[in-house]
Amino acid sequence: MTRLEVAIVGAGFAGIGMAMSLRRAGVESVTVLERATALGGTWRDNTYPGIACDVPSHLYGFADHPNPSWSAVYAPGAEIRDYLEQVAAAEGIVPRLSSPLDGAEWMGDHWVLDIGGIAPTVLEADVLVLACGRLTEPSIPEIPGLESFAGPIFHSARWDHSVDLSGVRVGVVGTGASAIQLVPELAATADVTLFQRTPAWIMPRNAREYTAAERARFADDADALAAVRAELDAEGEERFASRSGDRDAAAAATAQALAHLHAQISDPALRDALTPDYAFGCKRVLLSDAFYPALASDRVRLVPSALASVDAGTLVAEDGTRAEVDALVLATGFSSTRQPYAELVRGESETLAEHWSAGMTSFGSTVVSGFPNLFVLNGPNASLGHTSSVLMIEEQAAYAARTIAHRDGVLRVDPDAEAAYTAEIDAAAAQTPWLRGGCRNWYVDDRSGRLTLLWPGTVAAFRERLAAADGSEFLPAPITRGSP
Predict the structure, then answer these.
(1) Would I find Oxidoreductase among this entry's keywords (predicted)?
(2) pTM of the predicted model, to two decimals?
């Protein structure tokens, strides 16, 4: 049976970033396991029309691998996937593809991993890193009659490119981050009926392509490239105030979003239907220059009500609106607060799913009591609502790598340390719009009402928090009989 020092599950940003950090820390016996046939994570899986990053390109990459060649301020999805492949190649990271994790169990001093796929096997690893992402399993709503739909139906994250939607009637369910990108693209060639449960706060995107001269300057001048990243980092951190409930910052952002809406939607009734009734920042704030114009056109019909049922080719909204469509796209998000891998991982006495039955908890958003030598990236309270998630991944990977490299024996998280960190998160989140803003969002676990997905602070604060971790979050090694 193959024995590894570290097994990493997932070959997206988190997995590649973790492998890089381990190499820099001097840890060489590392394998990256990937269930798909290619690396790339969410940027491999999501290929819907119009997909692009909603974080500026020069901030959506690794600090050690700046990319002077981004084509636009907001890179398209395929370009981000290509970037990840280039980074992996430059770092010599070759994931083991078609190797899904079917189960993992702690065996006293190591993990035993059941690996499925085309070549099932069993691996042993001293350390297990879950870099599986938080947006991996599409959320399919339980809608009566959905199975009766007569035409093509697919989730936005599993786009069926064999289906030609040109000239047909397309129903789209959802008005989140994916929908506002794909609806304008669909509306260019199809007639779209859009079902909106809740309107989103939408800010101007101000998207544009970089000129050849700009790209040449970035390629020739490393300081200029670094300055762009630093400027975007500072701008991103400034946005935290408006998202987290600062009164003045939220008021200014709300005014900007409403001005954007009024500038692009002239119909008062449509404008009213698109105006949120909850606090700015309560749900994910979206960016688009094209969504409102698409809805103002005669190619999109907005139904300001959730889809309630399906009867063959007829979609019925909660308000009674009926729509005949030929194809149906579910832009309904992901299972974010209940991570699908949690059922597969068994620690000293329970699975992660059981440990997280009332919502995800951890120390440092990275390690979990009862699960020795386990590190989770992009898990409990590791997401952001104001800037690049890659920044959080880099901090988690750096913490994990230095902890793994300097460990002396088994790393068991002190339950009191996890409880204290959880209480710290709860206190920081208590008065924020995420909990008090009058909306239902994917940041909060509905079983406990706790904020379990977002880090309720800036990236700088997270960096300081992990830098302060001195090893006291782990239990001392037990003294065995016969020890001095």
Answers:
(1) yes
(2) 0.95
